């Protein structure tokens, strides 16, 4: 697919996940920085994402929002990058990609906001308890080199970004399994390129204030 590819992002956002994924697939893309505040709620950007949030990508006429969806889309749109298993082998890939997008992110966010459910509420939330989520995840990242098996996939971009963020900012309790997994998935040229690009943009924006 040779359609133009645009990343709408902000370096202080989950857009870093989308950029990492774009660097992994290796396709040329253009970056549009969207400032927080009025710019994200402007009619022009709401036409891209009615939620008024980044990241989003435009690939030709296709528009994709939500980080997990962006990762899955790009893995399929650029199969030569080898970031999705063969269709018949995608059980673990889909399971852990959407475990991260659902139970893990919800549980981490609730804990960060001081909103962990009590015993009576646990049956009403998709993740049950943060302890169950973290115990499940600790086992999962210890079973193979990568979350879906022996090869790095788009699921590692998304899950890895959440684990890295959690370890850095305290959303996850440090444990050897998480630290070892993060060390493996972040030891990639694409991750370093993406981080460098976003860090440079963040510094430039700060200097301009």
Descriptive account of the structure:
- The structure is a single chain.
- The protein is α+β, with helices and mostly antiparallel strands.
- It has 8 helices and 4 strands.
- It has helices at 15-25, 43-46, 67-77, 91-112, 130-143, 154-169, 176-186, 189-208; strands at 5-9, 30-33, 56-59, 62-65.
- A 4-stranded mixed beta sheet has the order 2-1-3-4, with helices on one face.
- A hairpin with a 2-residue loop joins strand 3 (56-59) and strand 4 (62-65).
Radius of gyration: 17 Å
Structural class: alpha+beta
How confident overall, as mean pLDDT?
95
Biggest sheet record = 4 strands, mixed
Helix content: 40-55%
How are helices and strands ordered from N to C?
EHEHEEHHHHHH
Strand content: 5-15%
User: Strand order, biggest sheet?
Assistant: 2-1-3-4
**Number of distinct beta strands:** 4
Number of helices: 8
Low-confidence stretches: none
Short note summarizing the structure:
By secondary structure, this protein is α+β, with helices and mostly antiparallel strands. The protein has eight helices and four strands.
How do the strands and helices of this protein lay out in sequence?
Blueprint lengths: L4 E5 L5 H11 L4 E4 L9 H4 L9 E4 L2 E4 L1 H11 L13 H22 L17 H14 L10 H16 L6 H11 L2 H20 L1
Parallel strand pairs: 1-2
Antiparallel strand pairs: 1-3, 3-4
What attributes characterize this protein structure?
8% strand; single chain; 4-stranded mixed β-sheet; 8 helices; alpha+beta; 4 strands; 209 residues
């Amino acid at each position: 697919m040779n359609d133009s590819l645009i990343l709408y992002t902000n370096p202080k956002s989950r857009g870093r996940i989308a950029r990492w994924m774009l660097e992994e697939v290796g396709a040329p893309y253009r970056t549009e920085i969207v400032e927080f505040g009025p710019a994200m709620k402007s009619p022009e950007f709401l036409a891209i994402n009615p939620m008024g949030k980044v990241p989003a990508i435009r690939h030709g006429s296709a528009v994709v929002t939500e980080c997990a969806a962006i990762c899955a889309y790009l893995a399929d749109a650029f199969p030569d990058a080898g970031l999705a298993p063969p269709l018949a082998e995608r059980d673990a890939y889909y399971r852990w990609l959407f475990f991260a997008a659902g139970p893990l992110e919800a549980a981490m966010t609730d804990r960060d906001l001081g909103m962990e459910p009590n015993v009576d509420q646990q049956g009403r939330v998709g993740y049950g308890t943060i302890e169950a989520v973290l115990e499940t995840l600790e086992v999962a990242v210890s079973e193979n080199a990568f979350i879906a098996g022996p090869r790095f996939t788009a699921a590692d971009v998304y899950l890895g970004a959440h684990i890295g963020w959690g370890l850095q900012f305290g959303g996850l309790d440090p444990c050897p399994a998480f630290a070892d997994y993060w060390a493996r998935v972040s030891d990639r040229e694409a991750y370093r390129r993406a981080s460098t690009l976003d860090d440079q943009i963040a510094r430039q924006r700060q200097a301009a204030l």
